[in-house]
Design a protein that fits this description.
- The structure is a single chain.
- By secondary structure, the protein is of the alpha/beta class.
- The chain has two domains: 9-196 and 376-388, Glycogen Phosphorylase B (Rossmann fold); 199-367, Glycogen Phosphorylase B (Rossmann fold), CATH 3.40.50.
- It is built from 14 helices and 18 strands.
- It has an eight-stranded mixed sheet with strand order 3-4-2-1-7-8-9-10, with helices on both faces. The chain has a six-stranded parallel sheet with strand order 13-12-11-14-16-18, sandwiched between helices. It has a two-stranded antiparallel ribbon with strand order 5-6.
- The two termini are 14 Å apart.
């Protein structure tokens, strides 16, 4: 399928990418995804990112070959530990501004869903192709657990409708593709282009000298269930296994997790790192651990777990239905998938530590599994370019 005529500017198509959270001002899996993809594809397409005003100064900000446009003020994405309805509505309403922007291809992240409805209208009026990247499918039961019966039904209706509106969908994992197809059937083409990892940067990173037994990386949100890890650590301590743990990331649960570590009596064994910036620092800290523990209840892909596997560090994760990182761990064989309970997690950690006697180091066996190359940014970028028909 060809999208038709495009702007002749510099011989490259103009891509308008709409996403409310962007790197480096916000850190997370989708932020890293768009940062890596846009800078790699900027030589083949003119990229303009439409987002909230994360930076100081003018509303238009240029970083390398990518131009950022603020279409809304900076709004808090979370309220009382959940995605903010106010932010979702206001940011989505501001997407009307795309009606007057220059682009050949309109691309959007599916979060927070409402903007997909607005952007479908924009694409129709402008007669341009509309592509949406989908990280995970929630479904009605998950929405009702998250928002309650009434609001949950409304949110599910919005998600259900949003799935049907793009011209194409980029699924961030094979499991997300299957979940989408189970709901929308063949009506919208779905192409898998997983989140990627920087294999070269991971290989070049040296382990940090500050060693630890366990490490977890991620935004500190309730569904990441870092509290489950802390309780498992406390359980191991109670058995006389004085394991140490490093928590890398920041988010709404930061204060609560500090208090929990104090209440469990393990504060001295937990190293909270909220200040880590560049990815190479994260890789160094992951390589300084014997085990990567990923107790998240919901992951649309699990890039952090994949990075740990590429670092040569075994991963323990859970079989929670919404945790798609378990499929990466099973594919690798470098880790364990256990029940999402404190006793099961503590037991899996104990057994895995017995098989991983020391952190990865310069002399450690590299994680040379061939399947990891499929998730390198070069391969992922090419799949995205093909979907967008970027020459």
């Amino acid at each position: 399928m060809s999208w038709g005529k495009r702007s002749p500017a510099a011989g490259r198509p103009v891509v308008a990418l709409v996403v409310d959270a962007v790197h480096p001002w916000s850190r997370g899996g989708r932020e890293i995804r768009y940062h890596e993809l846009t800078r790699r594809l900027a030589g083949r397409a003119e990229y303009h990112i439409y987002t909230m005003k994360w930076w100081d100064g003018p509303r238009v900000h240029r970083a390398g070959d990518v131009t950022f446009h603020a279409i809304s003020p900076l709004l808090s994405m979370y309220h009382e530990g959940r995605r903010s309805l106010r932010q979702s509505v206001l940011f989505s309403a501001c997407c009307v501004a795309l009606l007057w922007c220059r682009f050949d291809i309109l691309e959007s992240d599916h979060i927070p869903h409402l903007q997909v409805l607005v952007l479908r209208l924009v694409a129709a009026v402008r007669r341009k192709p509309f592509i949406v990247t989908w990280h995970e499918v929630w479904g009605q039961s998950s929405w009702q657990d998250y928002l309650g019966q009434r609001l949950g039904r409304v949110a599910w209706l919005v998600e259900w409708l949003a799935m049907r509106l793009p011209d194409r969908i980029l699924a961030a994992s094979r499991q997300t593709e299957e979940a989408l197809r189970a709901i929308i059937g063949p009506r919208v083409p779905v192409i898998v282009a997983s989140n990627g990892i920087d294999l070269e940067a991971i290989a070049a990173a040296e382990p940090d000298p500050a060693l630890t037994d366990l490490v977890v990386v991620g935004r500190l949100m309730p569904h990441k269930q870092v509290d489950l890890l802390l309780r498992a650590v406390a359980r191991l301590h109670a058995r006389g296994h004085r394991v140490t743990c490093r928590v890398i990331g920041d988010g709404p649960e930061r204060a609560a997790l500090h208090h929990l570590a104090e209440d469990l009596g393990i504060a001295g064994a937990v190293d909270f790192r909220h200040d880590v910036g560049p990815q190479h620092e994260i890789y160094a800290l992951v390589k300084a651990a014997r085990l990567f523990v990923f107790p998240s209840a919901r992951e649309g892909f699990g890039a952090a777990a994949l990075e740990a596997l590429a670092c040569g560090v075994p991963v323990v994760t859970t079989s929670a239905p919404g945790n798609l990182s378990q499929f990466l761990v099973r594919q690798s064989g470098r880790g364990t998938v256990c029940d999402p309970t404190v006793p099961a997690l503590a037991g899996a950690i104990d057994a895995a530590l017995a098989a991983a006697p020391r952190p990865a180091g310069p002399d450690a066996e590299p994680a040379a599994e061939a399947w990891l190359a499929e998730h390198g940014w070069a391969a992922v970028s090419e799949r995205v370019a093909q979907c967008l028909e970027i020459p």
